[in-house]
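Table S2 (continued). Query chain:
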Amino acid sequence: MASKGKPKIIAFIGSPRRGGNSELLTKEVLEVAKQEGTETELIRLAEYDLKPCDACMTCRKTKKCQIDDDGEKLFKKVMEADGIVLATPVYFGSCSPQMKIFIDRMGYLAKAIGQPLNNKVGSAIVVARRAGANFTYAQLLFFFLLNGMIVPGVSYWTIAYGRGEGEVMNDKEGVETAREMGEKIAWLTKLIKKEGSTT
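Corresponding output:
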């Protein structure tokens, strides 16, 4: 169930590094979204116990995941959000292990209980050293689209480049695009929430 009152945007960070480049860029999105009148929250997946999906299919029968970890806690966070930001560094041309486990677990459970992410807003943030950004960006977009979510666009993809600590902030276009996304995701979640309250 999405939050009442202000729209809530929750960012899930897939980097194992606290305060890394992915997190710094995501904070730009959330800062602008908050200025635009939404509630925001940042969650670091590395701080949670989240095991890979074991394909047991239990969730299809019981509507719950049988794995004993923080998956249920994270799924509740996903459900309370009106907008979801998924942020990851690029590792070997793909998203981080933490992010892959997250989208597998959340997506599979969502499908099992009847597509509850439908019409939530989704945005992807990808930080690369050099290559693999577009493929990784597509991975996250596929998660949103497969779950019936709404993905806003801005002037460019929300991709930025950096390797060393804080280096991503030198990518001026990447930072500006992230801030544009903050505006757009705030506008869209507010619009959807307003429309939902009048129906």
